[in-house]
Task: inverse folding
């Protein structure tokens, strides 16, 4: 805890309360809650195993499977190895189960009714709490910020770091405030609000910032609606989104299985009530929006910032400034198969997807049922899927009669998972299929190679299912306000807490405490660092000189750098030939596209990428993106800006991202196109052009030091073991509800002295 009288934002308060050590702004931050899923954890567990490390705080770690699993009926489920047909998905899920057993973690498997998308189950269980730090190897961890938690996505190297140390190395972000005031218009929801915000700030608008959402509109929203907003803070480029906790937050949390109880509840509320930004706190960026200006909103392009009112038209490339932005629009229209000027509400659709960590909570399903009730899915719609976010959401929806309303209307009622949000499982769009989707990303190929995604709210997706085209939900008056026939049951509103308890019919997976890290005879921090560095093949970065490949597009997202089908690997290597897969190979023939720079000589040998468009690496936290680039031979990327998580991930892999002003990147891009060599000198912090010109760049001193020396972060952090122990002791005293004693009867006994390690 930092004692200070300076007015602070909500973000600064939570950040300060988690500082374990502060070395000139390079902090070690304690992590309260760690969610783990199958896609981003195998390499992290492998790293632990290779270095002989354990999971430091199993009581603060919760794992589930969500991305790879089929959403078909589970009546015949016996085990992952017999149920999941696709081999790589099966291997990835089975690997998680093995790791869970080996490292003794709590796990909601496919036979547990609490299984679901990580970002749905954390809040549902009360695992996510105000004032906590929450991380997951997943960019939409920002969702949990709706509770006033500091929650953000991390890459796999950081997953390993948290598993081993329960901390992260971190620097303070900037503060951004998005204030929305007034009542929302008819048919307008939190999803429209957040799409509208991203349309205004752009997908790089929040880069380097934590966004605090505030104002009377936000305060009036339910927790479900707040979660949808914070979920998409990452789509606005922010590290995290946060909303100050209030009575709505407390009411949502009270009696959740892992929320504090009795006296601890009162103590927690007292602390949580201090988590408001001070009135005089200052923000680096402020955006003010009137709720009445937000229309029902839908996306037209391939970036979440490509949004318009449903009453609007597809924009024309000429409405964008010449250069990468106009090029980006042209490419998006071609990919989406749309003509500039077309009316959004006349665009026919083939499929509807209602689900994802943005919109698969009970309120979302109620909104869909309210539109669909007494109506039928249009005949041109091949599939309208409803995928509840968790087993608990599904059970509650069924108890409320929502499933019967929706199946009567022709919707497909599924089991919980990520499903068609990213299609790592069997739920996918076919090429050119167009989908109204409640998910969060409309990137090229996101829901299936060649598939076309239009992001919208659950009510709008339901309206689209009914009419067969993108539709203004305000056109559809309620069809059956009070019907009670058998096929259209009366909808009940039930208390979600009845569906989240530990009294599940399925058992809580056995989770044995791991105990303290060994001291006697165990390797020292330095020995561990050396071992881990060797295991991870940590490469030094000093000077890289070579050919550079120019990629001028804006917003090159990590789905573009490495699409979902390659995330099923449990290794870090071998992804080079899959880098930029969608752009690199002809979708019909599978042959290399001769127009793509990395397929052309001499750039097949490029070791540097130059990107004028900026916001490079936006979207998902997948560390597979830097792994793929590295495997392709790229050691350095020069751009006008980078998305935060990708930026971070490159350093962990011995790669260097360099940010330069537009005019310098344009010059270097030109050099690259003329096959002139570029030299990047980290020691001297300069990029040297072929003509001898030196362009200086900035890089964080600590990161530079680690890269120059090929240092292993985990080893460095473990040298601060005593500080971590001291922090844990104070944490147990100040915030006792954060030690996860609820899991598997485990009790955490705080260490009594600085040198005494954890005792279970
Ligand atoms: C697989 C995971 C790394 C990824 C993310 O970070 O968001 C996924 O959840 C996504 O939505 O693209
Ligand atoms: S965004 Fe989609 S794929 Fe990613 S965690 Fe959420 S539901 Fe899963």
Result:
């Amino acid at each position: 805890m930092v004692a200070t009288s300076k007015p602070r934002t909500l973000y600064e308060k939570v950040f300060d309360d988690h500082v374990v050590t502060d070395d000139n702004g390079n902090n070690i931050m304690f992590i309260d809650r760690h969610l783990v899923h199958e896609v981003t954890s195998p390499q992290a567990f492998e790293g632990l195993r290779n270095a002989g490390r354990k999971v430091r705080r199993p009581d603060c770690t919760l794992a589930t499977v969500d991305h790879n699993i089929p959403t078909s009926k589970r009546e015949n489920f016996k085990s992952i190895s017999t149920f999941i047909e696709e081999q790589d998905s099966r291997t990835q899920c089975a690997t998680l189960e093995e790791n869970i057993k080996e490292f003794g973690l709590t796990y909601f498997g496919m036979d547990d009714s609490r299984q679901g998308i990580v970002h749905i189950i954390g809040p549902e269980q009360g695992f996510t709490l105000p004032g906590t730090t929450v991380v997951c190897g997943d960019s939409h961890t920002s969702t949990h910020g709706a509770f006033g938690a500091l929650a953000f996505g991390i890459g796999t190297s950081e997953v390993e770091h948290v598993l081993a140390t329960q901390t992260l190395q971190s620097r303070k972000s900037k503060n951004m405030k998005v204030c929305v005031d007034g009542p929302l218009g008819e048919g307008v929801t939190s999803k429209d609000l957040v799409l509208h915000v991203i349309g205004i700030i752009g997908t790089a608008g929040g880069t380097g910032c934590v966004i605090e959402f505030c104002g009377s509109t936000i305060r009036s929203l339910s927790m479900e609606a707040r979660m949808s907003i914070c979920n998409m803070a990452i789509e606005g480029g922010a590290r995290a989104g946060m909303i100050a906790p209030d009575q709505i937050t407390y009411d949502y949390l009270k009696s959740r299985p892992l929320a504090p109880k009795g006296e601890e509840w009162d103590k927690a509320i007292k602390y949580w009530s201090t988590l408001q930004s001070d009135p005089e706190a200052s923000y680096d960026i402020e955006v003010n929006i009137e709720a009445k200006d937000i229309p029902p909103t839908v996306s037209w392009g391939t970036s979440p910032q490509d949004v318009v009112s449903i009453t609007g038209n597809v924009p024309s490339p000429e409405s964008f400034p010449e250069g990468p932005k106009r090029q980006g629009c042209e490419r998006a229209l071609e990919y989406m198969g749309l003509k500039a000027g077309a009316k959004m509400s006349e665009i026919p659709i083939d499929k509807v997807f209602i689900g994802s960590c943005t919109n698969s909570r009970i309120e979302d399903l109620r909104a869909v049922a309210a539109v669909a009730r007494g109506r039928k899915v249009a005949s041109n719609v091949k599939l309208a899927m409803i995928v509840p976010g968790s087993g608990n959401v599904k059970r509650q929806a069924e108890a409320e009669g929502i499933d019967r309303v929706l199946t009567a209307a022709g919707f497909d009622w599924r089991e919980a998972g990520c499903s068609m949000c990213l299609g790592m499982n069997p739920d996918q769009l076919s090429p050119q299929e167009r989908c109204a989707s409640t998910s969060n990303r409309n990137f090229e190929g996101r829901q299936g190679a060649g598939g076309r995604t239009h992001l919208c709210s659950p009510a709008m997706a339901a309206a689209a299912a009914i009419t067969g085209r993108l539709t203004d939900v305000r056109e559809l008056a309620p069809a059956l306000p009070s019907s009670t026939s058998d096929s259209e049951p009366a909808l009940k509103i039930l208390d979600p807490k009845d569906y989240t308890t530990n009294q599940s019919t399925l058992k809580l997976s056995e989770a044995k405490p791991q105990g303290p890290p060994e001291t006697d005879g165990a390797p020292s921090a330095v020995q561990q660092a050396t071992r881990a560095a060797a295991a991870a093949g940590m490469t030094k970065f000093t000077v890289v000189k070579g050919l550079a490949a120019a990629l001028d597009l804006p917003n090159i997202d990590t789905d573009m750098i490495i699409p979902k089908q390659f995330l099923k690997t449990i290794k870090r290597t071998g992804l080079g030939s899959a880098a930029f897969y969608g752009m690199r190979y002809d979708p019909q023939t599978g042959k290399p596209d001769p127009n793509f720079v990395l397929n052309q000589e001499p750039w097949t040998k490029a070791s540097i990428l130059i990107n004028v468009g900026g916001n490079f690496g936006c979207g998902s936290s997948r560390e597979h993106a830097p792994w793929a680039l590295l495997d392709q031979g790229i050691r350095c990327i020069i751009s006008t800006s980078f998305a935060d998580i990708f930026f971070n991930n490159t350093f962990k892999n011995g790669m260097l991202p360099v940010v330069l002003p537009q005019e310098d990147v344009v010059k270097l891009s030109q050099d690259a196109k003329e096959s002139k060599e570029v030299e990047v000198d980290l020691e001297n912090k300069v990029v040297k052009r072929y003509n001898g010109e030196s362009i200086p760049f900035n890089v964080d001193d600590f990161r530079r030091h680690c890269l120059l020396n090929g240092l292993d972060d985990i080893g460095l952090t473990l040298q601060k073991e005593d500080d971590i122990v001291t922090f844990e002791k104070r944490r147990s005293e100040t915030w006792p509800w954060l030690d996860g004693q609820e899991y598997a009867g485990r009790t955490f006994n705080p260490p009594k002295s600085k040198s005494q390690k954890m005792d279970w």
Observations:
- The pocket of iron/sulfur cluster (ligand 2) is lined by residues 66-67, 117, 138, 140, 356-357, 418, 421-422, 439-440 (CB under 6 Å).
- Confidence is low (pLDDT under 50) at residues 502-535, 744-760.
- The longest helix spans residues 87-103.
